[in-house]
Specification:
globular; about 140 residues; about 35% strand; three-stranded antiparallel beta sheet; Nucleoside Triphosphate Pyrophosphohydrolase; alpha+beta; 3 helices; 9 strands
Length: about 140
Amino acid sequence: MIEIPDAVAVVPVLPDGRIVLIGQYRHPHGKTHWEVPAGRMLDGEEAQLCAERELHEETGHRAGSWERLPGFYPINGISDHYAHVFVAKDCVRLGEHEPEDCEQILVQSFTRGEVEALLDSGRVEDVFAAVSLMYWLRRSR
């Protein structure tokens, strides 16, 4: 069994309904993936506070309100690692994102149709992003 701290994933939604994604370079694959802001929770940190922190660090945005979505176990067969999922609604950009030194992040917004096309074409290969976006898209019809 692999022990990994729980994590959060955030679907940032702008007031006009566009969804903010990050393009993040991943060394194991040697390419950039479209993802939602996500990260591991600090020891003793509450899930929503972690979501707020990750949203700001990775996109420079703050949410007007929050909604919790179903979470998931991304590597169910080998770990109890759990991902808490949130929608950050009515996001506004406060400034530049503040990625960690090891992160290479591009911030971009997409329409619902563009996100659906990315998912349908298999261009969202990150499980945190794919599952979180699908939960949101089904709920926000």
